[in-house]
Automatic annotation (TrEMBL):
Keywords: SH3 domain, Signal. This is OTOR protein. The keyword Iron-sulfur does not apply. CDD domains: MIAL. It comes from Neodrepanis coruscans (wattled asity). Residues 42-114 form the SH3 domain. The gene is Otor. One of its GO terms (biological process) is cartilage condensation. InterPro entries: OTOR, Otoraplin_SH3, SH3-like_dom_sf, SH3_domain.
Length: 132
């Protein structure tokens, strides 16, 4: 019994010293985005989802047809890329998703109300994860 405990402790120590994975790096969606302010925190518009969308990875949010979405930024379309906006869902019935900001295809929504113009071009950034 004590032998197996020592083996588990040894394996845990080795795992801490030599991590197996350091993260998954994904392609950048765009180099620039349009925002209402320099930090892209002010709402540009309110959009309504015209159809469902299931997020392809952690950068995106799920949206359901009829759902309202606050839009915070619009990625500047580059060659061979889709056109994506960043936003968060709105409304009490979507309370479990509120506050989660992510990208979604702009072709799946219609703008219902524009609060302010997205006239600031801001570079998108990539967060560099610290090396273990």
């Amino acid at each position: 019994m004590t032998r197996s405990v020592y083996l588990v402790v040894l394996l845990l120590c080795l795992r801490l010293m030599c991590p197996l994975a350091t993260g998954v790096f994904m392609d950048k969606l765009a180099s620039k985005k349009l925002c209402a302010d320099d930090n892209c925190v002010y709402t540009i518009s309110l959009a309504r989802a015209e159809e469902d969308y299931n997020a392809s990875d952690c950068r995106f949010i799920n949206i359901k047809k009829g759902q309202l979405i606050y839009v915070y930024s619009k990625l500047v379309k580059e060659k061979d890329s889709g056109e994506f906006w960043a936003g968060s869902v709105y409304g009490e019935q979507y309370e479990d998703h509120m506050g989660t900001v992510g990208y979604f295809p702009s072709s799946l929504v219609s703008e219902q109300h524009v609060y302010q113009e997205a006239n600031k071009t801001v570079p998108t950034t990539v967060r560099n994860l610290p090396k273990p």
